[in-house]
Amino acid sequence: MRQSIRDEVMKLTSRLAQRCHQSVADDHSALIARYARLDTACHAFDAFTGCRPVEDSDIFETLSQRRREIADVLAHANLEAFEREAAPGLYLAIPYFYWCSDIQPIWLVNRTHEPCTYVRRACYAFASADDGVDEYRTASSAFADGIAAGAVIQPAEKLQIDDYSMRVDGDFVSVRRVILVVNGERGEYFVSISKLAGYLTCQHLNGLHELKSVQSVQGERPATF
User: Fold this and answer.
1) Of the residues 31, 104, 164, 213, which has the fewest C-beta atoms closer than 10 A?
2) pLDDT at position 3, please?
3) Is the pLDDT of residue 7 over 90?
4) Using CA atoms, how far apart are residues 224 and 8, in angstroms rounded to an integer?
5) 3-class SS string, 7-51
6) Is residue 104 within 8 Å of residue 96, measured between CB atoms?
7) pLDDT tens by residue, 159-196
8) In terms of Cα–Cα distance, which of 120, 131, 133, 74 is closest to 100?
């Protein structure tokens, strides 16, 4: 049994490394191996759900918390590595790794050669439900969120403009819109993000969702906001 568990951990370590950016797999190999051991231990504890002694319930939480902390490190390291290789453009970027924390940042990433200024955002999200369609809308601005002082994003820099809940938002497809000032011109940009921040069906995007220009609004508020 000990050998079979060791083999499973080794296989999982290899699979996880293959799903990481190569630089992350190289630089964080020990962390990936540790994650694999913790993940295997958590799954072993899961098998005893309902018949674990109450006195030992804290052990699973401790293991899962450590797994979650490592997952967050790997999620952010992967995103940053893929950001550095992204084609020129403006992106909404969301980190993710298996069993990472529920709440993750939504970054506005500037991969152009010019600074841009973030003004405001809006989101329409929807998902199929038994009785139709579940949906919700949110909106805010740099001033309302208290980030106006840092709203100018220089090339190769990023700004956190929102949070993303893997547990809640991850069940929805979301259309996210932002108002930016680029080259002195105010414009609306949008992107559609599939479930689980796109990692469920669009893994090739690696958490980077390129914004597309809708129109130049030249100081007028678009109808979608």
Assistant:
1) 213
2) 65
3) no
4) 50
5) HHHHHHHHHHHHCCCHHHHHHCHHHHHHHHHHHHHHHHHHCCCCC
6) yes
7) 999 999 999 999 999 999 999 999 999 999 999 999 99
8) 74
pLDDT at 191: 96
Is the predicted pLDDT of residue 81 greater than 90, yes or no?
A: yes
Reported confidence tier of residue 216, pLDDT bands at 50, 70, 90: very low
- What phi, psi does 83 have (nearest 5°)? -60, -45
Q: Which residues pair with 153 in a beta bridge?
A: 116
C-alpha to C-alpha distance for 98 and 133, rounded to whole angstroms: 27
Q: What is each CA distance from 172 to 47, 85, 199, in whole angstroms?
A: 29, 28, 12
Domain boundaries, the chain: 2-84, 88-216
Calculate the alpha carbon distances from 73 to 65, 140, 193 in Å.
13, 28, 23
Name the residue type at position 95.
Answer: P
The structure tokens listed for 82 are: 């893929």
pTM greater than the 0.70 cutoff: yes
Q: Over range 143-157, report the average pLDDT.
A: 97
The amino acid present at 4, given as its one-letter code, is: S
Q: Which top CATH class is 88-216? A: mainly beta
Total count of residues recorded for the chain: 225
